[in-house]
Design goal:
Layout lengths: L6 H14 L12 H9 L7 H7 L3 H22 L1
Helix pairs in contact: 2-4
Amino acid sequence: MRREISEQEFLDFAKSYLSEAFPNPQRIGCPCDWDLIEMAERPNEAKHAAVSEHITFCSPCFNRYMDILGELKRRMRASRE
């Protein structure tokens, strides 16, 4: 019998998979850092569609985006204190 996985387990798996499964050593088609920062700080599905799609097939950009989101969360927490 198959076991249901939790949402967190799925997200952890997806994060792990996307962070390693798509190496892009030549960094072909990678957006600039500013585009990743802007997408993290001011998400807009229509405006960032190409960047969003790219990070699902480029582990270096996915990892950088996750770092940017982590930095953003830390800044938001610090500003609340």
